Every structure is written in structure tokens, then in C-alpha cells.
Amino acid sequence: MDCSICSSMPFILRPPRNTICGACYEGARNVITLMNKLENDHSKGGDNKASNIPIASSPNSCKASSVFHPQPLANLTKWITSLKDIEDDLNKKISFLSGLVVTFREQIHTDIQLKPGNNGHCIPAHRALLAARSEIFKNMLDSDGCKAPPSDTITLPELNTEELESLLEFLYSGNLPSDKLEKHAYSLFVAADKYEIPYLQEFCERFLLNSLNASNALEILEISDICSNKILKETSLNFIVRNMEDIVFSARYEVFAPKNPHLGVQITRAFLVDAKSRRINGPQPHANQVGWMNDLKDKKLSFLSGLVEAFKEQIHTDIQLKPGNNGPCIPAHRVILASRSEIFKNMLDSDDCKAPVPPSHTITLPELNSEELKSLLEFLYSGTLPLDKLEKHVNSLLIAADKYGIQFLQEFCQCYLLNSLNVSNVLDVLETSEARSNKELKESAMNFIFRNMEDVVLSDQYEALAAKNPQLLMQITKGYFMNARSEKVSQALDRHESEDEELSDSDETDDDSEASEEHDDREWQMQVTTSLGRLEVQSQRIANRLDRMAGTLDRIETMLTTLVHNQQQPPPPQ
């Protein structure tokens, strides 16, 4: 059927507007349903996933403000763009938190050895990360056997070397390449269950459900039974029942059945129940294998942010950070500092920080007080900050981010400042941007000042800035007058363009009037010509009638002449 929306025909030849194909109808219906759902969620409290990210946790929250107020369908494009901005911010945060994988690959400041079960070589790792990712690992590391120096080793007997490397890569990055996941999914799933790593368990579960087929269904059923995973077991069992003939008569089933007799019984019973149900109710639609799954991105973010607990509880810390106000030292982890900042990494690689008892060593950050240092560390561990802390320490954190090369924190603070500019803080923001040579932030602050010049100049902060930084004050004054001049020039140009447009419009009007007159003349000429033609035809008709009348008169005259002539002759003799 031709569609008024997606048809390739020219617009004038398309069917009526109420003619629509099935694909366009479904697409429009889905969009309307999505918008209605989001508006309903917002009216209930705005706790949907799209709006679940607080303003303080998204560096581009100034772009995404419209997400929290769903608009009608007409603004759908703008709303989708805002969602994309939040998605980009989420990816940046995940990338920032995933930077720990470099410290694993390069073995930076490792303090524990993990040994695989196949007598392979030991793999260095970090106690703090293992403790943050798994409560089981935390208990193992807290035992007396693991409180010695970094030479101590933990053995994971159920994993070979490649599997252990894949497990550690996931613990550091929250992700795995598809080839490694495909190769080690079963062993990683068992390890996730044994060491209580829920995110890895769900990650492997999703992969196994998406890759379920006749060749691996029995293995997945066996693994799900070992790990007591109800969803995976039910899904694989239903798949086997639907493909009973192909699976039961395969060589894999002959190996599987003697090893797992209880699962063989469950398969047979499930097949009989399904057959009975089909006889009574008819064929039932199959459940979507991945319909239960939610997007794992939020869970990945939570998984990667778990290290903040190791910071708050001071688990296996190995370095002390000292604030500049002579406050108490704050314990931290070398691996976090080294992964978040190249500057910190170089500082920790210096000779002063390589003594055998690391926790006794201290790094001083003179530009931060105790509260600011705690906020900096919390961000380095979690990738976010509560709004009250961000509002209080944003300027000092921006300076620290610039000094220590923490780009994500710099973007985070900068966007918060851009989104919260007001008369009371714009001069502080301008001063900070000037000190850190931040061009974008300085331009935004300057433009805000120019738009609110009277309020800013009459404030107490302006007097303080004049006394403290007269050079910056001069830039504001010059910039304001230059901006005013450019606005006047722009207004003059606009007026000139407006006059040109009016003249152009008048010329067009004159041209139109001339064209109209020419059209009227042509029309009048056509009317005159038509009238003359009609008169000529009528004249011809009258002439023809006159000719006929003349002929008739001639005949009458002839008849009268004959009659008179007959009367004048003498009568014949009697």
C-alpha cells in the first residue's frame, strides 16, 4: 500500500494524508507510547532512568535540563538530543572510572599476587580493588594469612591462567572483549557466583541468554543448575523443550545424561508438561529471552564506583595525603591516584614514595584544605560528588583538576559553573577562569556580566575585585564598551538590511503593479478582440438576413407588376 509519509512518489501524487503504511503506523505509535510513558513517570516523581542522574553527577547537566521536563511530541527531536548528551556523559564517566585497567596491565603499585589453579604464573593485582569488587575477596584479604607484605599470594583453584586474567580485566574495567567472553563465559559465571560478584554474574548471564542455541543449551542448563540461577535455568530448559528432537538425539545429550541424571528427569517432565499444555491451550508464544534484561550501563557505573567504599572505610590504604591547612592526613590508594592522574603517577613513582612501608609516606597538596581534599578524593573514587559539596568547593576543585591534569573533573566543574552562573558568583568564576587560562569559561562569564552589567557593577563583589585585580576590571570595562559598540553596529546593520528589504519589497511591489497593469492591458485587448469578432459575426448574419429580405421584396415586386399588367389589358370579346 502507498503511504503518505514514506512514499517515494512526488508530493502532489501521494495518497491522502490518512493513508499510512504499517511500518509508519507502528513507529508513530511507539513514539507516542514512549512520550506518554515518560510524561507519566515524570508526573509520578521523575524516577525514570533517563532522569535518574542528578545534576551534580552529569558534567553536561546544563545541556540535559529538558530531560527532566518531557515536552510534547513536537519537541521530540530536542528531547532525544538531550538524552544523547546524558548518554555521552555517562560514557565519559564510565571511561574515567575504567582507567584502573591500565594499572593492572602495567602492574603499577600492585600489592598482592593471584595464582591460577593450573600452576601457571602468578598475576599481580591490587588489594583495594579486589576488596571493593567482592565481599569474599575482602574477607580473604582481611584474614591473618594476607596481612603480610605484598609477596603474599591467593590461589583461585577453579580458574586457569587465561580465565584468571579475564576475571581481573573485568574487575578493573567492568567489561570484556567479545572473544574472551565467548571463550571463558562459563568459568567466569561460576567464579562470579562463588566470589559474589553480582555485576559479572549478570553480565555473563546476559551473554549466555543471547547466545543460547542447540549446541550449547545443555552446557548452559548444567551451569545454571550449579549456580542455582533460576532465570538462566528456566530459559535454557524451555529452549531444550522447544528443540527436543534436535537436542535429545545429539551426541552431546548422550554425554550429558549420565553425568546429570536429575537434569535429564527435569527435561523429560518439562517436555510432557509442555505437550499437555499445547493440547489444552494450543501453541503459546515464546517468551522473549532478553525481555527481562535492563540496560546494564547504570549497573556498570555502580560497579566501577564501588571503590569509594574502600576509601571511606580505609581498606588496604597505602599512601597518606596531607592538606595545605595542616589538617589530618587522609589515607588513600596509590593505584587510584596513579590511574586518575599522570601527575600523581609521576609523584608516586619518585624515589620518596618507594619505601618498603608505603602507608607511612605522605604527599602534600598545599592548595587544598581538608574538606576540599576529601571532596577531591571522593570524586577520584566515584566519578561524582553530592551537590552540596560541589557547590561549596567547585572553584578549588577546578584549580586542582587543572594542576593535576584530571580532565574529567575539569569538565565536570566547568559545566557546573556554566550552569549555575549568577550575579553573586560570576566574578569569582571569571577570576578562576583567568587564573587557569580557561577560555570557554571566561567568555561565558564575560557575556553574563555584559548582559547584567548594572547588577554586577553595583555589587560588593565588584568593589572587592577592583581592589584585588584591577587588570581584570579593565578587561570587563573595555569588553563591555566593545560589546556595546558591536551591538550598535549590529543594530545599524540590521536597520540598513531592514531598509534594503523594504526598498526591495517596494521594488517588488512596483514590479508586481507593472506586471498587473500589463496583464490587465492584455486581458482588455483580448476582450476587445473577442467583442469585435462577435460583432463581425452578428453583422454577417444581419447582412445575410437583409439579402434574403431583398430577394423576397423582389419577388413581391414581380408579383405586383404582373398583377397590375393583367388588370390594364382589355377584357376579351364576348
TrEMBL record:
Ranges where the BTB domain occurs: 110-180, 317-389
This protein's pathway: Protein modification; protein ubiquitination
Region listing for Disordered, in residue ranges: 490-528
InterPro entries attached to this UniProt entry: At1g01640-like, BTB/POZ_dom, SKP1/BTB/POZ_sf
Protein name per Swiss-Prot or TrEMBL: BTB/POZ-like protein
Upper classification of the organism: Eukaryota, Viridiplantae, Streptophyta, Embryophyta, Tracheophyta
Comp. bias intervals (Acidic residues): 499-518
Purpose: May act as a substrate-specific adapter of an E3 ubiquitin-protein ligase complex (CUL3-RBX1-BTB) which mediates the ubiquitination and subsequent proteasomal degradation of target proteins.
Gene Ontology biological process terms, A to Z: protein ubiquitination
Source domain of life: Eukaryota
A matching Pfam family: BTB
